[in-house]
């Protein structure tokens, strides 16, 4: 295989950790960052086979990746993940908080267990991972943190009070981190996808009537691809975005218009 010229590898020599990287948007981000030259740490909870497949695919194209298991709902798992990564790979340059979950549940009867579960994966894990990553990033005075948010950080969604609250919370968490870390060399931003064709949306993507209803709400009139979200993450992770911090990039086909 011929080597890719380094000018085409904007992330060469950088270490990137991506949570929720065994499927959907997280997997596309892992592939994209690896193709840009980063060594990618793929974090998964239950899909070990797909995580290993992603590592193998990245290696087959000349990239570097390694998979680690951690449950983002558990503080203990997150702490041990970061300790292992620091020891085996070294300090991170890039953190992408992509692990997330959603489950439909009416507000009036939502059990606190559902609320806590969604909050712990979508918001608390982002806080914990970012804190651990940032503690070593500030020592080198270099680092980038990117959170995968949602159009539902700004658009309410009936049946998803916990999900919307977690994504809305991510907005202010990101802005406050960006403000506190700006003078220490660390940039923090969010990427907010709309409807993207990933396994999380399987229930309506293959249902013609529901798909039509969703398309009516999207000015570009199509469902997005995970690679289109990954492109935005690559931009924010690279030095091309060196003057960008504290912002949210919507990748939603105009859904929030
Ligand atoms: C959700 C998807 C939903 C999309 C647009 C995303 O945050 O994860 O399930 O289709 O927003 O509503």
Topology:
Layout: E1 15-18, H1 24-35, E2 39-44, H2 48-60, E3 64-69, H3 75-88, E4 94-97, H4 112-140, E5 143-148, H5 161-181, E6 186-193, H6 202-205, H7 208-216, H8 226-237, E7 248-251
Parallel strand pairs: 1-2, 1-4, 2-3, 4-5, 5-6, 6-7
Helix pairs in contact: 1-2, 1-8, 3-4, 4-5
Tell me what you see in this structure.
The protein has 257 residues and is α/β, with parallel strands linked by helices. The chain has a single domain (7-196, 227-251), classed as 3-Layer(aba) Sandwich (Rossmann fold). Helix content is 44%, strand content 15%. It is built from eight helices and seven strands, in the order E-H-E-H-E-H-E-H-E-H-E-H-H-H-E. A seven-stranded parallel beta sheet has the order 3-2-1-4-5-6-7, sandwiched between helices. The longest helix has 29 residues, at 112-140. The model has no long low-confidence stretch (mean pLDDT 96).
> Helix-strand pattern, N to C?
EHEHEHEHEHEHHHE
* Unique ligands: beta-D-glucopyranose
What's the count of strands?
Answer: 7
- Across the major sheet, the strand order is 3-2-1-4-5-6-7
Q: Strand percentage, roughly?
A: 5-15%
Query: What is the tally of helical segments?
Result: 8
Indicate the CATH topology. Answer: Rossmann fold
Corresponding CATH superfamily: NAD(P)-binding Rossmann-like Domain
State Rg: 18 Å
How many structural domains? 1
Main beta-sheet strand count, sense and barrel state = 7 strands, parallel
* Bulk shape: globular
CATH class: Alpha Beta
